[in-house]
Amino acid sequence: MTNSELKLFENAHAFDSMTDKQIKILAAAVDVFAEKGYANTSTKEIAKKAGVAEGNIFNKFTNKRGLLHAIVTPVMHSFFPASLDTFVKTQLTKTYPSLEAFITALVQDRFAFLKKNSKVIKILVSEMLYDQKVRAQLTTEFTGTYWHEINKQLDFLKSKHLIVDWSNIEILKTMWSITGGTILGYLYFDQPLSKTSTKHAITALVKALRY
Fold first, then answer.
1. Could you give the CA distance from residue 79 to residue 18 in angstroms, rounded to a whole number?
2. Dihedral sign, CA of 190, 194, 200, 205?
3. For residue 187, what pLDDT is reported?
4. Mean pLDDT per segment of 10 residues, for the chain of length 211 residues?
5. Which residue segments constitute the domains of the chain, with CATH numbers given?
6. Please, what sign has the CA dihedral across residues 170, 171, 173, 177?
7. If you ran DSSP here, which 8-state letter would residue 51 be given?
8. What does the CA dihedral 114, 115, 119, 124 come to, rounded to 10 degrees?
């Protein structure tokens, strides 16, 4: 687990009721789940990486699913909403002079966020694809402020004839579709999230959405 990912669990108070040994277990689980996937990971492997007896996992987390739940829950209900709030305040309250400026700011911000928190995001995405309940819960964490500000930005760009005159949801679906390929390639196929790939994603989005 990276320092930024460790910090996100601290900020979500996920460690408040855990001993140092239990924190080591959760950190090891993040590393192993992200590397091998939940289904291909055993509690024995996690215990070995954490340097503890396997029974310590069961004492706190009951089983492997309980350990996954201990990772996913604070990410969904604390870290994810907080990161969205920061994104809104730092990127969605600005006035952008062009479509390219708007797209560049959003893509660079989100890709940087992805690189800092790639392990927990990979675990969350994998669980979201597998579990309908997780998908439904994650959807509810998109705050009203986020939707208000992103819609305001798109409406402004449309009013200036800087972006295609589509419905906002269709614009967002196009943005998610183009950036999604880059994100999945980075998370699951060891494709680098480089300056070049970031530039290509920005160029593709601008071409697709230009008025």
1. 18
2. positive
3. 95
4. 82 90 95 94 96 94 94 87 90 95 96 93 90 82 86 96 97 95 94 95 97 91
5. 3-209 (1.10.357.10)
6. positive
7. T
8. 10
Percentages of the chain per state (helix, strand, coil), in multiples of 5:
75, 0, 25
Sign of the C-alpha dihedral computed for residues 106, 109, 115 and 117 taken in this order:
negative
**What distance in Å separates the CA atoms of residue 163 and residue 160, rounded to the nearest whole number?**
8
In 3-state terms, what secondary structure has residue 117?
A: coil
The DSSP element (H or E) to which 72 belongs, if any, is helix 64-74
* Cα–Cα distance, 157 to 166 (Å, whole number): 11
Please give the sequence-ordered ranges of beta strands (E in DSSP) within 43-191, or none if there are none: none
> Which sign does the torsion angle of CA 172, 177, 178, 182 carry?
positive
Record the tokens describing residue 211, joined without a space.
């008025």
Which CA distances in Å does 4 have to 54, 152, 206? Answer: 27, 31, 31
Instruction: Identify residue 126 by its one-letter amino acid code.
Output: S
Nearest alpha-carbon partner for 70 in 150, 122, 14, 126: 14
Residue with tokens 């950036």, as numbered in its chain: 179
Residue 54 DSSP code: T
Please list, residue by residue across 55-65, b when 16 or more beta carbons sit within 10 angstroms of its beta carbon and e when fewer do. ebbeebbeebe
- pTM exceeding the 0.85 threshold for the entire prediction: yes
How many CA atoms lie within 13 Å of 88's alpha carbon, on the beta-carbon side? 17
